[in-house]
Design goal:
33% of the residues lie in helices and 28% in strands. The longest helix is centred in the first third of the chain and has 15 residues. It has 105 residues and is α+β, with helices and mostly antiparallel strands. The chain starts with 7 loop residues before the first strand and ends in a 7-residue tail after the last strand. Strand 2 and strand 3 form a beta hairpin. It has three helices and four strands, in the order βαββααβ. The protein is globular and about 40 Å long.
């Protein structure tokens, strides 16, 4: 699947503190259920790094800028980020925004 130019594509990365890995996984699972119901969400896929199960990566795609803004404004997202901040090493999720090369498969 090639992202359209209007889509917002990003990855979020964070590392659970020692002993908090399963709490982070559970918290992320609850968020994923809600985000996937957002009308503008195309993908919200959660992963753990194979070599380091404390490292989490979330791949996200939103229909357009407005859908992403709506996602950011959701109250459950703020609740998630507050709870997550207590469980991870980084001060917050590290976000990397991606741009499609625009080449078909």
């Amino acid at each position: 699947m090639t992202a359209s130019k209007s889509q917002i594509v990003l990855i979020a990365e964070f590392t659970a503190r020692a002993g908090e890995e399963e709490r982070v996984a559970s918290l992320l699972d609850g968020l994923a259920t809600k985000v996937r119901q957002e009308p503008g969400n195309i993908a919200f896929d959660c992963y753990r790094q194979t070599e380091n199960p404390a490292k989490f990566v979330v791949y996200e795609i939103y229909r357009d800028r407005q859908a992403f803004e709506d996602h950011i404004a959701a109250d459950y997202g703020a609740t998630f980020n507050t709870r997550l901040q207590e469980l991870i090493i980084e001060p917050q999720s590290i976000l990397t925004f991606l741009t499609s090369l625009g080449r078909g498969a």
